[in-house]
């Protein structure tokens, strides 16, 4: 099978021919139909994360070994089943839950595998969907998508799930009664807006630094859009909310600038949920956290249970699909580079 792999950090992906696996136990082999290209793939490809204060978290220190086939947003057709695989039918299309943990510890047993201290995430720690086939370790991680479009469903496993889980960290009374701010209007931001609406949210003011992304956000139904580089960006955000501070901010960027703007826009007792890890250090004064009684929460992907809930919401037709651009799998390296250069609107998906 053909795999498009990171063999060296920062170097173009290389096509490697690998042996097509034969599933054992509860494993399932899928023919890849769609694999989303995600911002977090860029961090893997670059070999690390900027932690601010001049520090860097290296991917190899996190236990990721090269070569690795990235791709954690995957829909595939079941083509071969291990003897213990259950509730999976050959020929059907499935969304893969990629945020696997060890499966044994108390965190995993409680259904929060995405918070396991020994992650085995597909497309990160084990081979993912930038390949014509993918081996899923257990049939329980597969969700039947019916006749939905694989390219539109694949991004739900990461950008959809992450934003869904971030919104669920807020009291529904907050987002149902008041606009919130979404920092970042790329694929994640547009997905967040659609899911917020499907969950009964009253809407969002969206912030980005790219006019093209802000235009896409406006077209997708943002209440207002603000360019974060404008000197009066904070005043614009407050004005869009009737000159009132904001009860909740979901920061999908996670840069020094975005968190500062989000923090400053909050009401007393407000909540900042940080999802993105663009990098940098926290810019605000510690004293303002108690003085404004701000809650700062982190959100990392979501659980298998949440993905099932989200897929049901999508199947009910309440989440309008976001714009996806389809590219042949063989273009994986170029698409990744285009994403790194900020040239992708909506979500880029590799199809095979
Ligand atoms: Zn675990
Ligand atoms: Zn992702």
Description:
The chain folds into 2 domains: 2-158 and 321-351, Alpha-Beta Complex (Quinone Oxidoreductase, Chain A, domain 1), CATH 3.90.180.10; 161-298, Rossmann fold (3-Layer(aba) Sandwich). The chain is 27% helix and 26% strand. It contains 12 helices and 18 strands. The chain has helices at residues 39-46, 106-109, 150-153, 159-167, 172-177, 187-198, 211-219, 233-240, 256-265, 288-291, 304-315, 332-340; strands at 2-6, 14-17, 28-36, 48-52, 55-58, 68-69, 73-81, 93-96, 133-136, 142-144, 180-183, 204-208, 224-227, 246-251, 266-274, 295-298, 324-328, 347-351. Strands 3, 7, 8, 9, 10, 17 and 18 form a 7-stranded mixed beta sheet that branches. It has a 6-stranded parallel beta sheet with strand order 13-12-11-14-15-16, with helices on both faces. Strands 2-1-6 form a 3-stranded antiparallel beta sheet, with no helix packed on it. The radius of gyration is 20 Å and the shape is globular. 46% of the residues are buried. The structure holds zinc ion (ZN) (2 copies). Residues 101-102, 104-105, 107-108, 116, 118 line the site of one zinc ion.
